Amino acid sequence: xxxxxxxxxxxxxxxxxxxxxxxxxxxxxxxxxxxxxxxxxxxxxxxxxxxxxxxxxxxxxxxxxxxxxxxxxxxxxxxxxxxxxxxxxxxxxxxxx
Length: 97
Description:
- This protein starts with a helix and ends in a 7-residue tail after the last helix.
- It is mostly helical.
- The protein has four helices and no strands.
- 79% of the residues lie in helices and 0% in strands.
């Protein structure tokens, strides 16, 4: 990776982290609050979580090259897993672990 590519990737990481902080995390925490209170996912929630999963897959190569981002990525995956497990339980599916 050239210095120019590295600088460009750094800029992309800043944008991704800012989007997570200002847009994604607040919405994800709102969804978690809803399902923790016994609510279920509506189509908008499902579409949002799908978009986040797709973006995560698209950015996997960047995460692989930046181990300093692994902890935050793992925490986000854990949060998504908690949300989906709780939502499934709220729908009458398997109980969350």
